Amino acid sequence: MSAIKPVLVVAGARAGGTGAATAAAFARKGYSLALISRGAEDLQALVDELKSAGSDATAFPVPSYSAPSISSVFQSIHTRYPSPHYSIRAALYNASHSIRKPFLDLTLADFHAAQETIVEGAFAFSQEIIRVFKENDIDADTGKRGFLIFTGSTTSIRGNRTTSAAAPAKWGLRALSQSLSKEFGEWNIHVAHAIIDGIINTPFSRSRFNDPPNWVENEDVRLNAEDIAKAYVYLAEQPRSAWTWELDLRPAHEKW
Amino acid sequence: MSAIKPVLVVAGARAGGTGAATAAAFARKGYSLALISRGAEDLQALVDELKSAGSDATAFPVPSYSAPSISSVFQSIHTRYPSPHYSIRAALYNASHSIRKPFLDLTLADFHAAQETIVEGAFAFSQEIIRVFKENDIDADTGKRGFLIFTGSTTSIRGNRTTSAAAPAKWGLRALSQSLSKEFGEWNIHVAHAIIDGIINTPFSRSRFNDPPNWVENEDVRLNAEDIAKAYVYLAEQPRSAWTWELDLRPAHEKW
Amino acid sequence: MSAIKPVLVVAGARAGGTGAATAAAFARKGYSLALISRGAEDLQALVDELKSAGSDATAFPVPSYSAPSISSVFQSIHTRYPSPHYSIRAALYNASHSIRKPFLDLTLADFHAAQETIVEGAFAFSQEIIRVFKENDIDADTGKRGFLIFTGSTTSIRGNRTTSAAAPAKWGLRALSQSLSKEFGEWNIHVAHAIIDGIINTPFSRSRFNDPPNWVENEDVRLNAEDIAKAYVYLAEQPRSAWTWELDLRPAHEKW
Amino acid sequence: MSAIKPVLVVAGARAGGTGAATAAAFARKGYSLALISRGAEDLQALVDELKSAGSDATAFPVPSYSAPSISSVFQSIHTRYPSPHYSIRAALYNASHSIRKPFLDLTLADFHAAQETIVEGAFAFSQEIIRVFKENDIDADTGKRGFLIFTGSTTSIRGNRTTSAAAPAKWGLRALSQSLSKEFGEWNIHVAHAIIDGIINTPFSRSRFNDPPNWVENEDVRLNAEDIAKAYVYLAEQPRSAWTWELDLRPAHEKW
């Protein structure tokens, strides 16, 4: 007779990034992993890596984070991780779209890409997740039917000269998370938002930035994805009397 | 030989509302009026009313606030108010989309409607306006090439139980305005955002709310569109040494 | 038979500064002026200047902005501008204390000086003013028994490396203004707060800063006290349906 | 040969409250406890309780949280927990002053009491603590010389009708924490602020509130001090790449 297996769903998982590190951290807590991402090949490589470390992980590649795409992928997730053997108990919306341009250089496609990946995807993802959570029982330890967290950034709280596409989307995501936190708290669904205020040490950022020269080595000046994941696990485990909607995370030496 | 005539462009103008009152207030300052709105018939009635009061106003009806729709209508505006006889010097983005629903009742269409009218429309409108403003000379009194204001609301700064569609859009609009304010200040383009924190006395709200019974008569408990318009005129006239990005406006007795 | 004369009370008035400019602006609207400040000699010079311009102004020097000092000076103000011939209808708390030091260099005296001038003084001033306002009748044009504004700064919304004495005081002042705005709105008393986000062109700042070299001449990079005063007059005149608690004011080219 | 023993200093510790629960939680991590509080008798009872549970705890009663009182008590702490045998590595400023009154009912003594306990005490406490922290070595696991956290509340971010004494103090405390976080991050000193947004289940609150009737039993509607303490321990252990300045904590069903 087997216990129900908890599942974490992540949208936006790339090897070496926050989504992947969060997946690995929840796997260590006994979760199965449903990983949604663009880039089927890279996603499969990540899943293979997680599996070779002993995790139960499945790749759910998507062509985009449009709402129809999200809806469709959730059908596959439910087929792969069916109730009552599996129970989706945690979810991370980590998909984002990096764009920094002068306002007048932005195309409508740029604007839509940010909106779709950051806001529309999160909206559709949240509807899928919260519908599932509402059917869950309340976990005795945490008082939760489920835990949903969104990854934000400095741009989530500050508009800037080159953020006229990104900031509207990231502020929108933050507003969604606050509205959901208020609406579903009484359902014992915990919704949270993390402001990542600094550069994360990922393959992507390592390929892009080399200033200051030693930033990768110096843990005081950039975030480890694993340390962000620790924060997400902590939040997932917060007991019902003291839940956090929002926290910021930044390196010790970050100027802010 | 005639002077150049200043033009105010308003997106979102309904008789009795903030857009209409702002148009009338700028008309009294000598502006011609380009009024963009849905509902061609109502818009024409408003334009007729403004014209019968001696204003130079033109209706630019749109089927929606989608970016293509906004681009298209600006072509008509430039034809009707051509440079150098006319100069667009002020713009108000007042279009909004009222939607309050539990999150799980929201359709994707609901979500898109809010995003399109509030964020995509504002994005496209701002690109049109700022391109024009950048070509303007700097007004000697105000130090401005142009003035662009966005109408926000309580929902712009607070997510709530039934605002999971509206809040992401209104926060997004606020983020856009802040990014533009920072990017174009050095171009002497003044971008502002107003948080209207209370019910406005409009035909629409009168038809919808009757609680408390005397709220229409009692100026202490709701906003007059004319008083919001006064604030917008004030902001438009602020001299270059002291520009406001954001102010809130609420009735004297509002609980907040 | 004479009409009742309105009085503006200013705490923190130095020649060439915001307090002085606000006094002059309200004088042009017909107000008598009660000016509270440290530095009796400078204050008298300012009053003389205002009087020579035709204003009715009186100097009320204080040794400090401690609460007892504020209470005592209000007795003198009531004696000089007695009811019912005079009516205090507007008040500006503009006193501040400029201190930027590394935290560990701050003495307790430094800390107290900031707290006393910025928070304690404002607390005592507000009690004096609101007690008077509550006895006033409601002005028909503005719907106000009185208007009370506080001058804030960038430090009011952002703590920084050298603001561990100033920021607690300025945030405290902002909190006071928000609490009072909420408590006394229903009394038709308008309480506002202005965030001055930039350097003001005053004799004091001219003596202190010379970077960039042309900052004094360039109205795009610093605030005129007169333009701040215009904002304060505008706020004082806002009609009851649309009052502002807070606005920011910054030069066109300010980086923020 | 004995290892250096880490010490937690708490200001504001009452049996059953956040300070006491935090002390107990850090004791379980191997910390000695220096507990500062008013009410010598109650404090001694708390210390006795902690000692009977096996903790090393010492009572440091103070007559008030005035700066001189804080300075004096730190001399005693250093005598009792001398370097190099002991090392102060963590500190909680949890002292507060509960006051809710209409503004005009507040006495200057009320105002000063809130300022002294909440802001002046925190200022003096922080100077003592940061001076010590700067001499510490950097902990290999967390990247910290020390961890300093302040307890805030709903009033820390929102002024209200009856908070014109409390809000200026609590906003001031928050500003202090933000300034210190920015100044001392590069010293590897972690400064944090927690917004406790709800009622805490303490002997004090149980004696004061009985609405709704079952609030004490229902963990969904109020905070456990132990759960706040868990958050503080979590923050203390955050690794250097991802530190939080601020998080909020509220019960699952809290309306906000």
Automatic annotation (TrEMBL), chains A, B, C, D:
<dbReference type="InterPro" id="IPR036291">
    <property type="entry name" value="NAD(P)-bd_dom_sf"/>
</dbReference>
<protein>
    <recommendedName>
        <fullName>NAD(P)-binding protein</fullName>
    </recommendedName>
</protein>
<dbReference type="InterPro" id="IPR002347">
    <property type="entry name" value="SDR_fam"/>
</dbReference>
<dbReference type="Pfam" id="PF00106">
    <property type="entry name" value="adh_short"/>
</dbReference>
